[in-house]
Write a structure and sequence with these properties.
This protein is of the alpha/beta class. The protein is built from 13 helices and 12 strands. About 55% of the residues lie in helices and about 15% in strands.
Length: about 400
């Protein structure tokens, strides 16, 4: 879920949330329909009719956008990809996933489901507009349905442009993955095209705005700018991943951090392990000595000091999906892939049933530097974010609102 968004409950078991920006797109769409499209298509009606039909049309479009995201989510679940949620926001919709698809085929199916849904909905709305017009339904309604058909068709086609993070970019990444046999290199290729597409959209928007004096150019520029930035982030992230590619877990790991037992109080943690260590995290172990979580100063800071003596560290520790167990001989990227996207990367390295090392965000950063020293020079000078910080998501911007 994005920060600052409102939870709306679950649809088909998928958590749905909404950003307040949706009100802005909803308003723009309603205005475009009520003030321009409907009066042109069906002139001579009172304005309250245009606004009422406009609001219904805008809501139906937001519903179509949701159907596009749900299609990604439902197919993802069928392909063993965990769905964290769907958000509607200012620039369209996006679906967020917990893990990456295992095969290029799964990547393709999950991605193609979205545009296929939009194109299908577009065809249905156009057929309804045409059929109802034949039956003599008032033109104001059929105009609204025809608009829904066109805008859904446009959403489907625009998202097939082959630049990440658009759906077309994920399809390109899946194709490159199949051809080269390497997922990371596919994502790097699709992100490079994405930067190019974003730059192209900015140019197109400027042309629209300056030469054609069309204000929709502003929207195109904004979408292009967001696309360019998202593609650049993905590019940097996967170039970092590639730098990690040759390293094993054993090469990247640091020593085990200080440990505390699950039943240690937060007050004892602050006075004991956290005071002794210079590292950002302390491992939390159960009575058998197994690592069940990690805890750092951030978690302590979020708890009011008067609760420190009565709270066990296990209650504030990061645990579950945010921690993976790996063997020292495993590829580092494989181990990091298993760590959930929330809360940064934490890998406990085990050998012969004993915890022998640890990989946290600091070790990952060091490994990326090491990988770069040893491997081919990446094409960017920006420090890559630690893996897991670029969310695995699909983003579907609507290009024009009217
Ligand atoms: Zn999509």
């Amino acid at each position: 879920m994005r920060q600052g968004s409102i939870r709306l409950g679950k649809v088909l078991g998928v958590p749905l949330s909404m950003d307040l920006g949706v009100v802005v797109i909803g308003g723009l769409l309603t205005w475009g329909l009520a003030a321009i499209i409907l009066p042109n298509g069906a002139p001579g009606l009172v304005s309250s009719v245009y606004w009422t039909v406009g609001i219904v049309g805008a809501l139906l479009f937001l519903g179509s956008l949701l159907a596009h995201e749900l299609a990604h989510a439902v197919v993802a679940r069928r392909n063993e990809v965990e769905v964290e949620g769907i958000t509607l926001w200012l620039f369209g919709g996006f679906a967020q996933f917990g893990n990456e698809p295992r095969t290029p085929g799964a990547e393709f199916r999950i991605t193609a489901a979205g545009p296929a849904t939009s194109l299908g909905l577009g065809a249905v709305f156009l057929a309804m507009a045409f059929g109802l017009a034949q039956l003599g339904v008032p033109v104001v309604y059929t105009t609204m349905l025809a608009w829904l058909g066109i805008i859904n068709g446009f959403l489907g086609v625009f998202n097939l442009i082959p630049g990440a993070p658009l759906d077309g970019g994920r399809i390109l990444a899946a194709a490159l993955w199949r051809i080269r046999g390497d997922r990371v290199s596919g994502r790097i290729g699709a992100a490079s095209v994405g930067k190019f597409v974003g730059g192209g959209l900015i140019g197109l928007g400027l042309f629209e705005l300056v030469v054609l004096q069309g204000f929709t150019g502003l929207w195109t520029i904004l979408i292009g700018w967001f696309l360019f930035n998202a593609a650049r982030m993905e590019h940097t992230h996967f170039v970092g991943r590639r730098a990690l590619g040759a390293l094993t877990v054993g090469e990247a790991m640091g020593p085990m951090p200080e440990t505390v037992t699950t039943w240690t109080s937060v007050a004892d943690l602050v006075e004991g392990a956290l005071r002794r260590t210079s590292r950002p995290t302390v491992a939390v172990v159960d009575w058998q000595g197994r690592v069940v979580g990690v805890v750092g100063m951030d978690a302590v800071r979020r708890l009011p000091a008067e609760q420190w003596p009565t709270t066990d560290v296990v209650d504030i520790a990061t645990s579950g999906d945010a921690i993976a167990v790996a063997s020292p001989y495993e590829q580092l990227t494989d181990a990091l892939e298993r760590v959930g996207s929330a809360g940064g990367a934490h890998v406990v390295v085990e050998h012969d049933g004993r915890s022998i090392g640890f990989i946290g965000p600091d070790e990952v950063r060091r490994a990326i530097e090491l990988g770069r020293l040893r491997g081919p020079r990446p094409s960017t000078v920006m420090p890559p974010p630690p893996p897991g910080s670029v969310p695995n998501q699909r983003w579907d911007p609507p290009l024009h609102t009217s």
